[in-house]
Amino acid sequence: MSATSAAAPGGFTVTVGQTALSHQVVFTEAHAKSDSVTGTTTGVLLKRDGQPDVAISTANGTLEELATAINGANAGVRATLVRTGTSGGTDQYRLLVESTATGEAQAFESTDSTSAPLLGGGSVRAGRDASIEIGGITATSTSNTFANVVPGVTVTLGTNATGSADLTLSRDAQGRSDAVKSFVDQVNAALTSIAALTTNTTDAKGTLAGDSTLRRVASALQDAIYPGDGTSMAKFGVQIDRYGKVSPSTPTRLCRGVRRGPGRRRSGVHRHHRLRGAGAEGRQRRQRQVLRLRHQRHHQPHHHDHPPEREHRGLGRPAGACAGRPSSGSTPRSRPRSRRLNSQSSWLTSQPRLPVRIHPVRT
After folding, report:
1. Average pLDDT value for the chain
2. Alpha helix segments (H runs only) across the chain
3. What are the domain boundaries of the chain?
4. pLDDT tens per residue, range 16-52
5. Residues in Cβ contact with 331 at an 8 Å cutoff, skipping those fewer than 6 apart
6. What is the model's pLDDT at position 207?
7. Taking each helix axis from N to C terminus, what angle separates 279-298 and 339-349, rounded to the nearest 10 degrees?
8. CATH architecture of the region 22-125
9. How far apart are CA 7 and CA 26, in angstroms?
10. DSSP label at residue 62
């Protein structure tokens, strides 16, 4: 069995009805290779229903010449001489003629040029089609190969196949992974060669330094990973790293992105006081929020009779402690894009855990 990308995962049972056979004629009389066997002429006829007769000529009509002429006629049959013994010290042979293809439509008949039986006539093994059954449905084929018997699936029977077989289709994950890795290795080899040839520094100068054509080739290879038509090699686990090299994505990276989710908090500050924003306006907003929190810290009352529901629990939580991810008690490694955020909130998270009232601040 073989399958293409069009095949869907699943399984089914194949039961063999019969295998395909070629049409075969074994002629009755045995002769020496040099005996004349074609009758009154030196030629024979090959007959098929619904088709014109094919005339096959020989030089002298001998058995050996007849076998050679049949094989050279390109008429969809082949001839074989089978030694049966000796007579008077001379080897004797019988002629076997067989269709080159299998199936019921391959039936033929061989006669002399007058349509009289050749070599005393012959015994016939009729050609036949192959058949299999899948889920109670019978499928036939002129050969032992059933192409696309199920979309994307080809089943091939052995010459003497019998019985049933359970077939299972599944995605070849390892094969795809190997193909992606091979692709990545070849692209990186090309990029490395281009970089070496076009390098132009004070320490080294490549053979093709300054050649913009090779640089455009390198850019085209990288652009092929993320083309502008909406498709992307990223869906196959291929991406470009910060060094410009192509690399296969790892399961760990994928799981990390899924685990994070779109709403995961990245700091220990309470959600009502998240430091967020971008640009000058966002920076000013973060500064106001930090100043407000510092003001609340320095002006908090010295008594601890606040109701539990008014506690601000975020200030005592270590950074990185969020739902679904146990905290180790230490501040996680800062991210490049949130370095300012971590530095602003580090003073807050380092303070003792105390209840805090939220007071409005007049600005």
Report:
1. 76
2. 63-72, 173-198, 212-223, 251-260, 279-298, 339-349
3. 2-19+130-169, 22-125, 174-260, 273-299+336-363
4. 999 999 999 999 999 999 999 998 899 999 999 999 9
5. 318, 319, 320, 342, 346, 349
6. 84
7. 10
8. Sandwich (2.60)
9. 43
10. B
